[in-house]
Please model this.
Amino acid sequence: MNIMNGAEVIRDSDRRNLGILVEGRMRSRSVCFDLIDVSQGGCKIRGKLGFATEGETISLKINGVRAPLGKIVWVEDNFAGVAFEGRMHEAVLDHLQKELLARNS
Model:
């Protein structure tokens, strides 16, 4: 459990550090973000200062894999936390992490 902007954020799955550029949609427009890490229940993204507002809906595509619809739950400087409405399957997370490792070796 972490505290962010005075709000309690409960994490029930491990985070996977990815550090990759991903496509997304916010406010009916296409945008690109740095995906810092991802778990079954959400992710941390980085964009330009002011790119996100708490409560906004976001859709993400991570290396061709569509993540569950998400909601921005915290914003701090140019970072934001996304809580997925559903969950990403553990096998999908394993695949994304292995793909990244193979690309970087």
